Amino acid sequence: LMMSDHIFSAPILSRLARQHGPDRGVTLAIDRRCDNPLVDPDDATWVKTDQRGFIRAIGKTIADYDAVDCGAFLATPELTAAIQAAIAEGQAGSLSEGMQRLADAGRAAGMDIGTAWWLDVDDPRAHALAEAQAPRELPEIYS
């Protein structure tokens, strides 16, 4: 599952595709560079992880975080079930609500992308960055 307005370098998605395991219902690509100048801090979804790299909290307004959600997920049907459970309890049924439910159950893992390139393109500033950087960062597409 990928956010449609995000761009990812190939290594992020290649690594994410190999992150399945019986200990998780979802794996989220996360960027530990919380000060990454490509991240819009007012729009970011923040993530708090534990020592194993599993997600403990996720949301736009959490105060304690150590990573940012990159918008790429390796999801199992557990994520859909978690979102459905949130709706059944009167919540909106957002992706973050489903993720938090899996985090609360110890079933949401994070995958640190290291220095790999990604960008959430949702405003004119990010669009300009994408046009300037994508040809260099995504040579497999632009060569």
Kindly state the mean pLDDT as a whole number?
96
Low-confidence stretches: none
Strand segment count: 7
Strand content: 15-25%
Largest sheet: 5 strands, mixed
Helicity range: 25-40%
End-to-end span in angstroms? 26 Å
Number of helices: 5
Order of helices and strands: EHEEEEHHEEHH
Helical/strand content category: alpha+beta
Identify the strand order in the major beta sheet.
4-3-5-2-6
Radius of gyration: 15 Å
Shape category:
globular
Report on the architecture of this protein:
The protein has 143 residues and is of the alpha+beta class. It has helices spanning 10-16, 77-88, 95-104, 124-137, 139-142; strands at residues 6-8, 26-31, 46-49, 55-59, 67-75, 108-112, 118-120. The strands form two sheets. Strands 4-3-5-2-6 form a five-stranded mixed β-sheet. Strands 1-7 form a two-stranded antiparallel sheet. The longest helix has 14 residues, at 124-137. The protein is globular, with a radius of gyration of 15 Å. The model has no long low-confidence stretch (mean pLDDT 96).
In short:
The protein contains five helices and seven strands. It is of the alpha+beta class and 143 residues long.
Q: What would the keywords be for this entry?
A:
alpha+beta, two-stranded antiparallel ribbon, five-stranded mixed sheet, 5 helices, single chain, about 140 residues, 7 strands
Secondary structure topology:
Layout: E1 6-8, H1 10-16, E2 26-31, E3 46-49, E4 55-59, E5 67-75, H2 77-88, H3 95-104, E6 108-112, E7 118-120, H4 124-137, H5 139-142
Parallel strand pairs: 2-6
Antiparallel strand pairs: 1-7, 2-5, 3-4, 3-5
